[in-house]
Design brief:
five-stranded mixed sheet, two-stranded antiparallel sheet, 10 helices, 7 strands, single chain, alpha+beta
């Protein structure tokens, strides 16, 4: 999944005539015009003139913001923008008074009160305009800094997500050869021993792998599918050692729809067979229990095999891999505990969030 982290910044007229800028320029112009009326009553006739002056200063601010594209290193663009507004105000005032009609119908320089208003507007504009421009630049810089911080946060989150997904996919890819080699080793043992059950086990294994292998590459599966796979695996192992392995499932049916990473339950079952039942001279029993309680789901796989101390070669890479996958998928909200059962045996207990949608 890809995401656009940096939105395109407006430019050209879209930037110069942004609705926020137009509203600000018009609002300040109207406010200044209303103040001028108290000191210069004829200014009440010059509302359009003041609006034109405000828009002219705004256009100058926006024009210098984009042009020239490159400035000397010693000249900051914000300084040029403030100076541009200071120059644009008297020029815009002159243009507005010279070109826009007035109530007297004469050039403004021939009418005394218009000359006074011209001077008052220039002075007020020069006192207010550059400071407004400077304030706008400060807010613009703050907004840009917030935007950059948000962009960096989004980029970092995206990279972290991609790294987690890559690691999870790597771990899931490692499950496939680990599981296949262990299962094929069991079939090889039957063939080497000349067991008449070898062809039947091989056929069952082939059918089982057709269903199981595609799920190794899925992001999530349901506990119901996991239970079916685990039961099929145990049936294969029972065919291999019918006198040494027995098993039972105790399942809360409401938990079958819950989501979990693929090959989660099967990893625990395979570990119990490989490190518990197989090394035991008399074999043993495996009990699978699945219980749902409120927002949690408890999976327990217990065996009566040789136990942790007898399995001095360790419990294999399967549990380590499973712990890593659970940590990545559930972000620390899942736990896996492995304890020894007296007088001998091991119990692996997995506590998961009870979610019905893929994590």
């Amino acid at each position: 999944m890809s995401a656009t982290l940096i939105s395109a910044k407006p430019h050209g007229l879209a930037l110069m005539l942004g609705w926020r800028r137009v509203l600000l320029a018009c609002g300040l112009a109207v406010g200044l015009w209303r103040l001028l009326i108290f000191g210069c009553p004829p200014a009440s006739e010059l509302g359009i003139h003041v609006l034109a002056i405000g828009l002219g200063a705004m256009l100058a601010f926006g024009l210098i913001e984009q042009w020239p594209r490159r400035l000397p290193a010693w000249l900051a663009r914000w300084v040029l923008q403030v100076l541009g507004v200071a120059v644009a105000i008297p020029l815009a005032t002159l243009a507005a008074f010279a070109w826009l009609p007035n109530a007297e119908g004469q050039p403004f320089w021939d009418v005394e009160h218009l000359r006074g208003c011209f001077t008052a507007i220039n002075v007020a504009g020069l006192l207010v305009g550059p400071w407004v421009a400077l304030g706008a630049l400060v807010r613009q810089k703050e907004a840009f800094a917030r935007h950059q911080a948000l962009t960096f946060d989004l980029a970092r989150s995206e990279l972290e997500r991609q790294a987690l997904e890559a690691r999870l996919h790597l771990l899931q890819a490692q499950v496939a050869p680990h599981f296949l080699f262990n299962t094929l080793a069991n079939v090889q043992a039957l063939v080497d021993a000349g067991s008449p059950q070898a062809p039947a086990v091989l056929r069952a294994l082939t059918a089982y792998l057709r269903a199981a292998v595609p799920r190794l590459h899925e992001a999530s599966t349901t506990l119901g599918q996991e239970l079916d796979l685990a039961q099929a695996y145990l049936e294969l192992m029972h065919m291999r050692m019918p006198d040494r392995l027995s098993y039972a499932l105790h399942v809360d049916e409401s938990a079958r729809v819950l989501m979990c990473p693929p090959i989660t339950l099967l990893t625990l079952v395979e570990n119990a067979v490989r490190h518990g039942i197989d090394p035991a001279e008399d074999g043993g029993r495996i009990d699978i229990e699945v219980r749902r309680h409120d927002a949690r789901c408890l999976l327990r796989v217990c065996d009566t095999g040789v136990g942790l101390r007898a399995a001095n070669h360790g419990l294999g890479t399967g549990l380590w891999n499973l712990r890593e996958r659970l940590r990545l998928v559930f972000a620390g909200q899942a736990s896996l505990a492995v304890t020894e059962l007296p007088p001998h045996g091991v119990c692996a207990e997995l506590d998961l969030p009870a979610g019905t949608a893929s994590t």
